[in-house]
Structures are given as C-alpha cells and as structure tokens.
Amino acid sequence: MHDTLKKVWQLFTPAEQRKAVWMLLLALFMAMAETVGVISIMPFLSVLARPGVIEENPWLHALYASLGFAEPRTFIIALGLASVVLVLASSVFKTITQHLLNRFVHLLRHSISSRLIARYLAQPYEFFIHRNTAELSKSILAEVDMVMGNLIQPFSQVIVQGIVLLAMLALVFAYNPLTALAIVAVVGTLYGLIYLLVRRRLKRIGTEIVEANRQRYQTCNEALQGIRDIKITHAEAAYQQRYQQASRTQARHMAANETLSQTPLYLVEATGYTGLILIALALLLKSGDVAHVLPALGLYGFAAYRMLPAAQIMYRGFARLKFVSATLDGLYRDMSLPLPTAAPTNQPPIVPRQEIRLSGIRYAYSATLGKPVLDSFDLVIPVNTSVGIQGPSGAGKSTVMDILLGLLCPQAGTLSVDGQPVTARNLPAWQAAIGYVPQHIYIADASVAANIAFGTAADQIDMQAVQRAACAAQIHDFVMNELPQGYDTPVGDRGIRLSGGQRQRIGIARALYRDPLVLFMDEATSALDGATEAAVNEAVRALSGSKTIVVIAHREASLKDCAQVIALTPSPHGIRGDFMLKT
Ligand SMILES: Nc1ncnc2c1ncn2[C@@H]1O[C@H](COP(=O)(O)OP(=O)(O)OP(=O)(O)O)[C@@H](O)[C@H]1O
C-alpha cells in the first residue's frame, strides 16, 4: 500500500503536492467539525435526562453559573439551541470543505490527463509505432478517471472518516475504555478478516479489468475505423462479440468490486446494532434506571451512527486501493515516460542551399533489430532538383522518407543539410522548411480550409495561402464549384464526404500551404487520374520555380519528370541500401 500511495504522490506536481497537504489539513478540520457537531448533543441529552447532572459535573456547573441561568429548564433549551447552531455551522463548514475537496480531485483528474496527453505527444514518432493508439486513448480518457474515482476520491474520504472514527473512539474511550476497546476489537477483526479474504480477488479483477478495458477500446477503434471492410466482409457479428466479451468482463468485475467493497457494511451494521442493544440491556440491568442509561445510550448510539459508516468508507477506500493498483501501475509508468528536452521554438527554418544528405545510415525497426532495413545507406539530394525513389514494395522507401523527415532516428549515420547535421535540437527548424504529403492522408472532421491549413488556429488561417495551395493541388475548382459552402464546407469524419483523389489533393494542398522549399511526396499522386496527376506535378514544379522535391512512387510514369531516380533494391543479405542512379 505504501508503494501505491508513493506512486499516487509522484503523479502530483509540486504545487499539487502542496495543495494536497492543505486539503489534508482541511479534511482534518472537517473531521473535527463533524465530531464537534456530534459531541455537542451530549450535554443536552445528559441534562435533559437528569437535570441533577448540572450540580455534579464541574464543566456544566461552571457554564450554568457563569452564564447566569436561574433554572435548569432554560439551560436545557440553551444547550439544545447551542447544539443545533453547532451542528448547522459544522454542516456549512463540511459542505464548503467537501466542495473544495471535490474541486481538488476533479482538477487533479484534469491536470493528470492533460499532462499525460502532453507527455504522449512529446514522445518521438517511434514511440507510436510500438504503442496501440486505442490503448493510449484509454489511458488518457478512462484510466485517469478510474484512478481518480477509485483511489484519490475514496482516499480523501479514508482520511476524513479515519479522523472521525478516531474522535468517536476517543469519546467512547473517555466514557468507558473497555467498551472502546471492545468496539476496536470487534469492528477491526471483522473488517480485517474480510479485507484479508477479498484483497487477492480485488487485485486479480483489477488486473483483468485493465486488459478488458484495453480490448474494449481497441475493438471500438478497429470496428469504427475499418467500417468499410467490416461491411464488405460482414464482420459485424465478430466485432460485436469481441466487444461484448470484453465489456461483459469489465461489467462483472466492476460489479464484483462494488459488492466486495460494500458487503461488510450489512454485516458490521448488524453487529453494531446488536452490540448497541446488548450495551443498552447491560446498562439497564446494572443501574435499573432508564434516566441513567439514556445519556450513555445517546453517546453510544451517536458514536455508532458516525463510526460504522466511517469504518465502512475506510474499508471501501482500502479495497479500492487494491482494485485499482494495476491501473495505477500503467498510469504511473506512462507518466514517467522521459520527456525529450524541448528544442528552442524560435529557430529560423533550415533551408538547404546546396544539398540534403544521408550518410552511413543504419536503421532497424525495434521489432526486427537484427535485420536493418537500411545499412550503410547514402543518399545525396541536390537542391532545386526533383529526385524519385523507386523500388519494390517493402524495399524501404517510406523508411528513407521518414528518416529524411526526421520522424525516425537512425541507429547510425547522419541526416545533414548543407553539412549541418539535423539533431533533436534543430529538428523543428528542419521540419519548418519542409512540406510532406504522406501515403495515407489524414483528413480531420473540419472544413476544407482548416484541413489545408492543418494545425493552424481557425482565426489565423491565411485564406490567400489556402487558395494558392488548393489551385496548385488542382482542387480549387472543385471546392468553389461543387461544395455548398466552398472552403468552409465540412468534409466529415476522416473526409468521408470526399473521394480518394479529392482527399489526396487536399493532402497535397496542405503540404503546399506554407510554400515550403523542400517537398516530400510519398505515393502522393497514386489516387489521381493521369491528367490530374500531370497537372499536379506541373503545378508543384511551377509553384515557386525553385523547389527540392523528393517523390516516392511505384509507377514509372509518376517519376518521369524527376531529374534522377534512385532505385532501392534489397541486397541478398536482407540489408537494403544499394541504390542505382538513373538520370
Ligand atoms: N513499424 C515497423 N516495424 C517493423 N518493421 C517495419 C515497420 N515498418 C516497416 N517495416 C518493415 O520495413 C521494411 C521497409 O518498409 P517500408 O514501408 O519502408 O517499405 P516501402 O518500400 O515504403 O514499401 P511500400 O512500397 O509497400 O510502401 C518492410 O520489410 C517492412 O515490413
């Protein structure tokens, strides 16, 4: 448990840790207010039952005398009113404190999930090659909530209720130490035994629920992203079943968690009330006078009324700590991902004047570390020329492009621009100089203009640049003549309202929006008809008259205008780095 709490503590920023200490203090005051509220009824009950107690009890006597009461009846009324005021004041204080605690917990949820998404986004591209994106969404959206709901919120309650419990016990102890010890023994043994019995099961279902959640998110993601293939292959039932299985496991485990963390309440409640009746009978038999028994019974009754829920809430907090520990482990691991040192953002773009060069590149994907895709690979791209990269499927064309883009970091060799190596520090400056059209274009559910000016805030979109890029990409006429709201027309989720070729042209326009001097195109025109492809290629070349263009294409025709074509060929040893120059 110490380990779990340490992990939770480390999820907080230093400011949140300080705030947590304040919250702890507030919780302490809240518990004290609660205790004062409950205890304040005791003098009232005592005097009500037996006014003679005013003379016997020095505190009550001093109060009675100093406030100048003439008769017990008005004193009883005053005590009753004072108790009501104290209970009301304590309720107001508790409500305010509870709101502050709730605010703290929910802002913490917001802070942790925001920091988690920021940490993911700061990871190098290679991180996303290894991790399933549905799993990352699950961590940001579901697991932070799960940890907050099952751990931090209940834990703040454990503290408040723990203090209430201690205060009540102290009260009973002051009145009758033996009874207090008996309560500790009975309630402690009951909860302790139940906790020992269920904790393994809680941990197991807590681990299984992480896996069930992963499956739910992944299935949902796959089913909705691959809906076309699902429709064609009639795979709806298979996906539905996969989702149902995971969802049912999750539901069963959630229910088991609820039950396991609630069950003792009924048992302990029954034991508590049995104990109360036994104490009442014992007191009555001993004194034979109901008036003598009433204050003691009032005290035990109130103590039980506050203690049993407090003990239950504490037990539930500990049970949930066990249940959620597997989820917390995953969250803690991801929140501890190293943050790459942020490169300065105000560097001017690295615009090549002579050449872009790859030298001695070795790159192996981590899944196949022993089998590099590229080994001792060299490539020189002179500026203001267009270079084509050709080769059979799987030869490593996209890998070369990803290294040129700075998305993949080679294990050996360098990418340099005019002799200046591109490193993590100046990578943003290199990327600011390039435009890229990927093989699969991602279209956001936004307007045509927002998709072309991708990543630009809506009020900062340069419409002139949008139109210039759209004209070059041969999409301007379509946007103006056929879309109902022109550049403001929403294109639907992943551009579902557009044809493949239209999506591709939007991708090309996006790469051209910032009018980059270097343009990388990975199968960028493969979905276009011959005439449109020729027009796009011509427009790209003509756009500034002096661009360095690197094109990957399967089709010879797509590369016919390139000044040189590099053909990647797999070597007999599985190492692909040989290339031949066609001019
Ligand atoms: N994430 C990855 N993990 C492991 N291996 C990978 C990964 N991505 C690509 N590969 C492997 O690297 C090799 C080169 O892939 P790459 O995508 O660069 O080829 P390509 O020439 O662009 O192919 P295509 O023309 O089919 O797009 C392939 O053998 C592929 O299986």
TrEMBL record:
Keywords: ATP-binding, Cell membrane, Membrane, Nucleotide-binding, Transmembrane, Transmembrane helix. GO terms for molecular function: ABC-type transporter activity; ATP binding; ATP hydrolysis activity; ATPase-coupled lipid transmembrane transporter activity. Residues 21-290 form the ABC transmembrane type-1 domain. The chain crosses the membrane at residues 21-45, 74-93, 155-174, 180-198, 264-284, 290-308. One of its GO terms (cellular component) is plasma membrane. It is a multi-pass membrane protein. SUPFAM superfamilies: ABC transporter transmembrane region (SSF90123), P-loop containing nucleoside triphosphate hydrolases (SSF52540). Its main location: membrane. Residues 356-583 form the ABC transporter domain. InterPro entries: AAA+_ATPase, ABC1_TM_dom, ABC1_TM_sf, ABC_transporter-like_ATP-bd, ABC_transporter-like_CS, P-loop_NTPase, Type_1_exporter. It is found in: Cell membrane. The keyword Metal-binding does not apply. This is ABC transporter ATP-binding protein. It comes from Pseudothauera nasutitermitis. The lineage of its organism: Bacteria, Pseudomonadati, Pseudomonadota, Betaproteobacteria, Rhodocyclales.
